[in-house]
Amino acid sequence: MELNSYMSYIQKIILSAVCGWLSANFHPENGAMLNYTQVFIRWEQIPNTQSYVLSIQNISSGETTEIISPHNSNLVTNFMDWNSTYNWSICGLDTDGENIFCSEIYSFDVNPLPDYFPDDINVSNYDESLYQDGVTVMDYESLNFSGGLDKDGNPIWFADKDGFEERFVFTQFLKNGNMVGFGPGVGYEIDLDGDIVFETPPDVNSVHHDINKTSNNTYFLVSATVEDQYCPEECNPNLPDEIPWQGDIFREIDMDGNEIWSWNTFDYYDLTEYNPYYVEIYNGNLEMDWTHSNSVFFDENSESVFVSVRNLSRITKIDYASKDLIWNMGETDFMNEIYFEEDLNFSQQHSVQVLDNGNLLFFDNHRYLIPELSRCLEISYDESDYSVEIIWEHVLPEDLFSGSRGECDRLDNGNTLITAGRTGHTLEVTPENDVVWQLEVNNMGFDVAMYRSSRIPNLHPIAFSLGISEYTGDVGEAFVEPVNGLITANIYNAGWGTGWYIYGLQNESGTYILSDSIYVQPLEDAHFDIDVSGLPSSIYRLEVYPVHAPEKLQTFEFNLHSSILLGDLNSDGALNVLDVVILSSLILVEDDSNPAGDLNQDGNQNILDIVLLVNLILVN
User: Which of 195-199, 503-507, 520-524, 532-536 is least confident?
Assistant: First the structure.
C-alpha cells in the first residue's frame, strides 16, 4: 500500500472511531418497514452516560412515550401499533441526570395489517394465573400465511405471503429468532422481517407438511416420491395392473442444500402394508396416497428419527446411524410385524415429538374411529418388552374434532398448547385438563385451518447491545481509558434466549488479538474483562455474536488510550530519530517484543513500519 493512501486510510479509521456512535448501525435501521409491533431498539453507547432517555412518537396519532433505560438498548413491546410511523431519539444522562448529548431523530414504520388477515379473532377461558405468558405463533394455513398473537388475540407479527411463491406455513420458531416453514414443494427459513435466509434446493421440490431445523444447523423435512407399483386387490377393476403410489422420503439437508441423510418409505415398508381405504377411493387420477406422512422429528438424545405416517396411522422410529427401522407403533391391521401389542387406538395422527423425558407427544385426529373425538396424547414406551402406556391425554369436545392437521406442544409451565387443526381453535390446557386459554380464529364466517402453533415469550430471543465501562471523553472525541490495564465489556441482554456468545478483539488491521466465549443467561447482562496492558494506543474493534446466530454480530470500535504509544520505542513520550534507530535494530534481529514498533498493526515489524514512523515524525 502506498504511504499516502495508507495514512489517509488511518485517518479515516480514526475519524470513524472517535465519532463512533454517529455512524453506528442503529436498530431498527432508519426508515425500516416492520411487520411486527414488538420492536427492539438499539443505539451506540454515549460516553460518560449513566442512563438514557428513549423518546418515541407515533406520528400518526401524536402519542408519545419516554423510556428510561440504563443501557443502550430497549425492547418495546406495548407501544407500537399497526399502520403507523414512529420517530425516536436518544438522550444520554450523566450521574446528576443532566443531558450529555441527544441524537438526531430516527424513524421506522409498522406496516398495516394485510387485507387477508383474519377478521374475527376471539379469546375465551383465559386464566391469567395459569396461562403461559407470551406470543402464540401459528400458521393460518387456509389463508396461506402465518402470524403471531398476544394473549388477548391482538396481532403481533405476520409473514407477508406476497414474499413467497404462494404461501408460508409456519412450522418452527428458532433460537436465533428466525422461523422455519414451507410453501408448495419448498422449505424456508426466514427472519423476523420475512426475508428468506434459506430455501430448499430445486432438486428437493416436493416438500410438504413439515420442515424443521436441528441444533446442528441441518434441516429435516418430509418430501413426496412416486413409484409405479402393483394394483392391490381392493383396486377398481377398471384400473391397470400397475398404478402410481405416492410415498415419502424423509431427508436431512445442510445449509448449502446438500442431502446428508434420507429414508425412503419404498425401501423400508413392505408394499403389502397399506390402508385399503386409500386403494378403494383411488380412481386413477394422480397417485394412490399410500403414506401421506406429516412430521419428522430428530431426537438428539437417542439419535433416532421419529416419523408420523398418517394414512397408515403409524409412528415409526428409525436409527439415525444405520437407518434401521427400530419399531412401528399404531394400527396393526396395516403392519406385517407387530411390535407393541397394546392398542392405543389412535388414527391419522399428526406432529409427533419427543419430550425431554423421552415420552412421545402427538395430536391424535382419531379419524374414522367411533366416536370421532380428537385428542392430545403423551405416551411412554419400553423397548425391552415393547410395552406402551398413555401417560396423559386431553380429549377435545365433539365440536373441535379435526379430521386433519393439528399439533400438541408442551409448554415451559407444564401446560400443553393444542392446535385443533381445521376448527380454527388453539387451546392451552393444564396437566389436570383445565382449559386456561382458548383462541378461535375465523375469517368471513369460516374456521381458519391451522397445522401448528408455538408459544414464545416474545419475538426476540436474541436482543442485546454492547458497551464498555471505561468509555469516556466528549462525544466526537471519546476514547477508552483502561483501569489497571483492563477494560470491562458489557453484553446488555434483553433476549429470552440462552447460550454461548463468542467475543473477539481486533486491531486496526483486522488481526485478532484475542478470542473467547461467555455464557449468557436469559434476560441477564453478561460482563467480561479484557487485558489491554500490552496494547498500544490505537483503534480497536470488539466483536460479539451468539454461537447459534452469528448473523446477529455486534461491534464496538473505540480509540484506546494506552501508556504504549505507537512509534515511541523508548517510551519517552516523543517520536524522534532515536525511535527509528531502535526500531531498525529490532527489525534486524527479528525482535517483535516491543508492541510500539508495529505501526500498521499487521502483526509484523518491518520496513513499512519504519517508513510510517519516519512519516509521522516529519508530519509532527
Answer: 532-536
| Strand 453-456 with 73-76, pairing | unpaired
Q: How confident is the model at residue 414 (pLDDT cuts 50, 70, 90)?
A: very high
Confidence class for position 14, pLDDT limits 50, 70, 90: very low
Residue type, 425: H
Contact assessment for residue 127 and residue 137, using Cβ atoms and an 8 Å cutoff: no
Q: What local confidence, expressed as pLDDT, does residue 16 receive?
A: 36
Residue 396 gets which letter from DSSP?
A: P
Whether residue 183 contacts residue 159, with contact meaning beta carbons closer than 8 Å, is answered with no
How many CB atoms within 10 Å of residue 186? 24
For residue 223, the SS3 value is strand
Bridge partners of 479?
472
Alpha-carbon span 160 to 36, nearest angstrom: 11
| Residue among 339, 261, 247 nearest 304 (CA) | 261
d(CA 125, CA 513): 57
Question: What is the phi/psi pair of residue 478, to 5°?
Answer: -75, 155
Residue that the C-alpha cell 377393476 belongs to: 237
Sign of the C-alpha dihedral computed for residues 330, 331, 334 and 339 taken in this order = positive
**Beta-carbon count within 10 A of 497 CB:** 23
Angular region, 217: left φ>0, alpha ψ -120 to 50, beta rest = left
C-alpha cell at 3: 504511504
Categorise residue 612: left if φ over 0, alpha if ψ from -120 to 50, beta otherwise: alpha
Work out the mean pLDDT of the chain and round it to a whole number: 93
DSSP result, 99-133: EEEE---EEEEEPPPPTTS-SEEEEES--TTTS--
Distance CA 395, CA 224 (A): 31
Q: Which residue from 272, 274, 303 is spatially nearest to 291, judged by alpha carbons?
A: 274
Distance CA 188, CA 199 (A): 5
Alpha helix ranges (H) inside 202-289: 265-268, 276-280
Cα-based distances in Å from 347 to 308, 370, 395, 614: 11, 11, 14, 83
What φ, ψ does residue 398 adopt, rounded to 5°? -55, -35
Give the whole-angstrom CA distance, residue 473 versus residue 92.
13
For residue 422, how many other CB atoms are within 10 A of its CB?
21
Name the grid cell of 103: 441524537
Q: Cα dihedral sign for 255, 259, 261, 262? A: positive
Residue of 1, 8, 6, 13 whose CA lies nearest to 508: 13
How many CB atoms are located within 10 Å of the residue 468 CB?
19
What is the predicted pLDDT for the residue at 566? 80
CA dihedral of 371, 372, 376, 380, whole degrees rounded to 10: 60
> 18 in helix, strand or coil?
helix
**∠239-244-249 over CA atoms, to 5°?**
160
Where does residue 302 rank: exposed (0-12), middle (13-18), buried (19+ CB within 10 A)? middle
For 175, list phi and psi in degrees, rounded to 5: -65, -25
Query: Cis peptide leading into 240, omega within 30 of 0?
Result: no
Distance of CA 263 to the CA centre of its chain: 27
Residue 235: all three cell numbers together: 383396486
Q: Enumerate long-range contacts of 127-130, CB under 8 Å, 24 or more apart.
A: 127/434, 127/436, 127/437, 130/413, 130/415, 130/430, 130/434, 130/436
